[in-house]
Design a protein that fits this description.
The protein has 374 residues and is of the alpha/beta class. Helices cover 47% and strands 14% of the residues. It is built from 17 helices and 12 strands.
């Protein structure tokens, strides 16, 4: 793909992110973003044939190279947050979702927009507010006086990468509207079911220190996220680096954004998602995953342990982490690296543990330390 075509794709992506999509309800076409983001159901069910060992190594090496390129480009503008970036890439390679908990101003939005531009994906953002209704996110049918009929305006949820800022400020009725989209890759508007764009990936954020006017996610909603991670303040040296960059004029988003050309397309990303599924996990590592999840169900400080979705998150996440590290097989360290992010939001501590001041992260660190690979 030439640079001119790359630039054209970026222009289309940016325009599609700003404009509403008005469509004929009889056709219900996917939003007009890029040609490659419009996928028919027939294409969706096609599976990548089993690759030879040589071909798999080549594909995994390319995934690792692309990851290094993305990290290098992001590090030109973003300071720190390496763990968040890694987990976003892992979730993206599984077409799953991530919940980031942290204070405002820690580059969450910037990371999401940057990855959307680099991967050639469409990007939309929803700002959480108490008065948001499901139709504001999913879309609504309105009467077109010219056509003399109702037409569908698709909401911001119809995109490849969706950033939901302060999801805990959205009322429960509207929060529940995400469930079908996140788990089924489809939404229902006026009784009509519409497929999501593919790939579809949600980055949701919330401030755990805000309680006024918020609606905490219930467990079934938290369980839909592959990972949950805390976004912490930067260290002293990293904070100084931001100050110096700002002083030098190097933190201008508009100037940085024009340097971001797509190195992927939605079609290529879907291909790599299927490649990652072919990464090997041997029985000892599978048993290690089982033991970690079971340990959350039997730990004395935990009332509710991880669900089977937690096991699936560790399997898929371990494969993607191995691929990012240029391996065609998963090792226990891959699982350890993602265990807390995959499990901590799926557990509920006992009342005694909360009284003692224990956190989910501390309990998960203890479990990861004690559970051994057989």
């Amino acid at each position: 793909m030439t640079r001119n075509l790359d630039r054209k794709i970026v222009d289309i992506i940016r325009q599609s992110g700003r404009d509403g999509i008005k469509e004929d309800p009889d056709n219900f076409r996917a939003p007009a973003a890029t040609a490659e983001s419009q996928v028919s159901p027939k294409k969706e069910i096609l599976q990548l044939a089993r690759l030879s060992e040589t071909d798999l190594k080549k594909e995994i090496a390319e995934i690792s190279r692309l990851s290094a390129t993305i990290n290098g480009k992001l590090n030109e503008f973003i300071v720190g947050n390496q763990e968040i970036i890694d987990l976003i890439l892992v979730a993206l390679l599984n077409e799953e979702h991530i919940l980031i908990e942290g204070v405002p101003g820690t580059a969450k939005t910037t990371i999401a927009k940057s990855i959307a531009l680099i991967t050639g994906c469409t990007f939309n953002r929803i700002q959480g507010a108490i008065d948001i209704q499901p139709a504001d996110m999913l879309g609504v049918r309105i009467y077109d006086t010219n056509k003399k009929e109702f037409v569908l305006w698709k909401g911001p949820i119809f995109t490849n990468i969706l950033l939901v800022d302060e999801i805990n400020r959205i009322n429960p009725k509207s929060q529940s509207a995400f469930i079908e989209a996140m788990s089924e890759r489809q939404v229902t508007i006026d009784g009509i079911t519409l497929p999501m764009q593919s790939p579809f990936f949600v980055i949701a954020t919330q401030n755990p220190h805000e309680f006024e006017g918020t609606f905490p996610l219930i467990e079934v909603q938290r369980d839909r996220f592959m990972f949950s991670i805390r976004s912490e303040y930067l260290g002293a040296e990293e904070e100084l680096s931001i100050i110096k960059r700002a002083n030098s004029g190097l933190l201008n988003w508009d100037s940085y954004a024009v340097t971001l050309s797509p190195i992927l397309t939605p079609t290529a990303l879907k291909h790599y998602i299927q490649v990652v599924r072919q990464v090997t996990i041997e029985d000892p590592v599978l048993q290690y995953i089982r033991d970690l999840v079971v340990a959350t169900r039997t730990h004395p400080d935990i009332n509710l342990g991880g669900s089977s979705r937690a096991s699936l998150a560790l399997v898929g996440g371990g494969k993607a982490m191995a691929a990012l590290n240029n391996r065609t097989y998963v090792i226990p360290d891959d699982i350890k690296q993602i265990a807390s992010a995959a499990l901590s939001h799926r557990i509920i501590l006992s009342r005694d543990a909360e009284i003692e001041g224990l956190t989910r992260g501390q309990v998960m660190d203890e479990i990861v330390t004690k559970v051994e690979v057989l």
